């Protein structure tokens, strides 16, 4: 019974969030069990271009370090804000969400080449947090019961927390920068005088990930109606 309940809860997680968080957990488990090593995963342009180790373009986003506080902290934030985005502003737009992943990953890969970052998963998490926070500016946040602030300040609070822990803030700044580029091109620039939409999800991605539109006149039976959690406004972080 417990297994069935766990399986049901797992399958209720939106598909992109489920796939990405599962890949991160499995990658970390494989490293912990010494099936693979971080040296096979990190981002290295020379190995990608000269030795054709193209998997590094993906695996460097999947490893957050050994199991510990930093890993759990990143997994909580990744799962929470990835899911809130997918169930919120990207609800019914799986292809657009996948395209945001690809766009953000591409920019981070380019920028990461110049700042010599070998793992970009944390920066990717900050990007997701940034986009969510800008799209929910009126949500009040509580950070571990210590700070109260509006959602748009969350990425900067996380950067300050990283600084207190002695971590480099370059990763956080990269995530914020890429998140801002996406938010500006997707949400701000199209609404400006003379602006336009530069980011358009390719039709092949829409064909692969978007489901056919539901009949607006269809009234589902009670057991078919979507459930889940009330993510978004009113949710408090760390409290």
UniProtKB/TrEMBL annotation:
One of its GO terms (biological process) is ERAD pathway. It is a multi-pass membrane protein. InterPro entries: DER1, Rhomboid-like_sf. Keywords: Endoplasmic reticulum, Membrane, Transmembrane, Transmembrane helix. GO terms for cellular component: endoplasmic reticulum membrane. It is found in: Endoplasmic reticulum membrane. PANTHER family: DER1-LIKE PROTEIN, DERLIN. This is Derlin. The lineage of its organism: Eukaryota, Metazoa, Chordata, Craniata, Vertebrata.
């Amino acid at each position: 019974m417990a297994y069935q309940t766990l399986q049901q809860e797992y399958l209720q997680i939106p598909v992109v969030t489920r796939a990405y968080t599962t890949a991160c957990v499995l990658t970390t488990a494989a490293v912990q069990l010494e099936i693979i090593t971080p040296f096979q995963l990190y981002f290295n342009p020379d190995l990608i271009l000269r030795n054709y180790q193209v998997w590094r373009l993906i695996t460097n986003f999947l490893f957050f370090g050994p199991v510990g506080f930093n890993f759990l902290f990143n997994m909580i934030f990744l799962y929470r804000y990835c899911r809130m985005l997918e169930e919120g502003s990207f609800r019914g737009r799986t292809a657009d969400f996948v395209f945001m992943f690809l766009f953000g990953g591409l920019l981070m890969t380019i920028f990461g080449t110049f700042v010599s970052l070998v793992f970009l998963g944390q920066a990717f998490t900050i990007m997701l947090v940034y986009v969510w926070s800008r799209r929910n500016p009126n949500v009040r946040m509580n950070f571990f019961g210590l700070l109260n602030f509006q959602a748009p300040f969350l990425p900067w609070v996380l950067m300050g927390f990283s600084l207190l822990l002695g971590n480099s803030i370059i990763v956080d700044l990269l995530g914020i920068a890429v998140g801002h580029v996406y938010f500006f091109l997707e949400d701000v620039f199209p609404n400006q005088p003379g602006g336009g939409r530069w980011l358009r999800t390719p039709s092949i991605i829409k064909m692969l990930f978007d489901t056919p539109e539901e009949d607006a006149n269809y009234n589902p039976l009670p057991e078919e109606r979507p459930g889940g959690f009330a993510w978004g406004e009113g949710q408090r972080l760390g409290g």
